[in-house]
From TrEMBL:
<feature type="transmembrane region" description="Helical">
    <location>
        <begin position="382"/>
        <end position="406"/>
    </location>
</feature>
<feature type="transmembrane region" description="Helical">
    <location>
        <begin position="42"/>
        <end position="58"/>
    </location>
</feature>
<feature type="transmembrane region" description="Helical">
    <location>
        <begin position="21"/>
        <end position="36"/>
    </location>
</feature>
<feature type="transmembrane region" description="Helical">
    <location>
        <begin position="155"/>
        <end position="175"/>
    </location>
</feature>
<keyword id="KW-0812">Transmembrane</keyword>
<keyword id="KW-1133">Transmembrane helix</keyword>
<keyword id="KW-0472">Membrane</keyword>
<dbReference type="Pfam" id="PF13687">
    <property type="entry name" value="DUF4153"/>
</dbReference>
<protein>
    <submittedName>
        <fullName>Uncharacterized protein</fullName>
    </submittedName>
</protein>
<feature type="transmembrane region" description="Helical">
    <location>
        <begin position="195"/>
        <end position="215"/>
    </location>
</feature>
<feature type="transmembrane region" description="Helical">
    <location>
        <begin position="288"/>
        <end position="305"/>
    </location>
</feature>
<feature type="transmembrane region" description="Helical">
    <location>
        <begin position="317"/>
        <end position="337"/>
    </location>
</feature>
<dbReference type="InterPro" id="IPR025291">
    <property type="entry name" value="DUF4153"/>
</dbReference>
<feature type="transmembrane region" description="Helical">
    <location>
        <begin position="249"/>
        <end position="268"/>
    </location>
</feature>
<feature type="transmembrane region" description="Helical">
    <location>
        <begin position="357"/>
        <end position="375"/>
    </location>
</feature>
Amino acid sequence: MSLSNATVLSTKPISSSNRKLLILIVLVALADILLFNRYPGLNLFLFANIAAAGLLICSRRRQSALETSALLAFNFVASAPLVETASRMGITISLLGLSCVSLGASGLLPRQWIRLPLTLLRFLLEVPLRPFRQTSYRWLQRLQKPSSEGVRHHLRGWIMPLSFAAGFLALFAMANPLIDRTLRSIDLTFLLQLLSMWRIGFWLAAAVFLSLLLHPRLKRRRPHRQKIAEVALGVEDGLFGHAALLRSLAVFNALFAVQTLLDLTYLWGGASLPNGMSHAEYAHRGAYPLLVTALLAAIFVLVAMRHGGPGDKSALLRGLVHLWIAQNILLCLSSILRLDLYVEVYSLTELRVAAGIWMGLVAIGLFLILLRILLRRSNEWLIALCSATLVLTLYAAALVDIPAFIARFNVNHSREISGEGIALDIDYLLTLGPAAIPALDAYMAALPAEAKEQIALASAARGALTWGEWQEPRDWRSWTYRAARLGRYLQEHPTLAR
């Protein structure tokens, strides 16, 4: 080989497949350092942003500095809740951010933002099918080719140097007692720990996860089949024709009007209920079934008010749909009021907080459906706005310390503090974790000295939560702002001063 050819080969840039493989190895190593056998915390935030940077480095597309900065900033904001605490909602939002960066690095992001939810759905639906796709093994086939650019070529180049180096090292150990003693003093237990089955399994899982991000694919769209479309259209016209829609909406509006009038009378108006029934029972029995009712109503409206259908062309049907959606929104607000009345009597729980959030989301969704009909927008527009509302709600919930809020609410509304409601359920506060410690301190500080039994129970619960918090092994990788706040509080209040 001539000198000029050797110079060209040495200065040739690394191919895209080899660069992705190198980045994959580096990211798996960083995942091992940051995540393996560690409590989740700051390490998740750091790894999410490092992985985003790695995805952009591996991009085949030439991206401008503005596009790269925008994707990195978006991923930073999406993973920011992980700094507060490593919750399931924060992890979900961070994964969505990484998915968007992966699609952006591969040029698969849609130009219109309303198409982003469907694009992400196609990306997620393709993940289970990836092992069965022939395209997922293209990079392995390229590695098997006897090319001078393949990884096998570079690996073969290390066989001779490493073999001779091992032989020379063995000879030096035989000739030099210092080298022999140094080699014998090496502790191989570290290698055994490094090659444990759990660690290897973690490496494989991390490699699979990162490979999906490095090689994103979208689920293929099925070709439109005219016969199936005609059959489906015929079924829709039969079930959701003008006459069927008119009768359905008339019956539904009349039925919902009865429920609305009852809620306006007994729930909003506060009228006296029949003997043996309390407002709490009336509220509790209706909260969750009415939520399901509103969801079914939303599905019916979407199917009935399709573009070009009878409901879209008739002014009478549109008016009945508007009235029905308004009643459903009022139904959701009534469900939220029912839940609030029940919570005032029977305290707050995480499930009831989640139910309240979902009721609000359903009400917003119904309002967006009404906007979609009035503005004559597409279902894609509706899905995009509903998805954005859901993501923003999860993002806000990931930043709020919900267990601490529940604990404070139950303490402030307990019978011992407010004089109304039920006694504080200390056993439930234990299930909320260490976030309930400040609320327990406020509870014990507000109790009179004569309430020795309640003070003893609360003190025992605080001691158990405090002991559990201090026993958790933590380092800088598991740091979160929420845990740091609680740790600072416990240092300032090691015991309750009465």
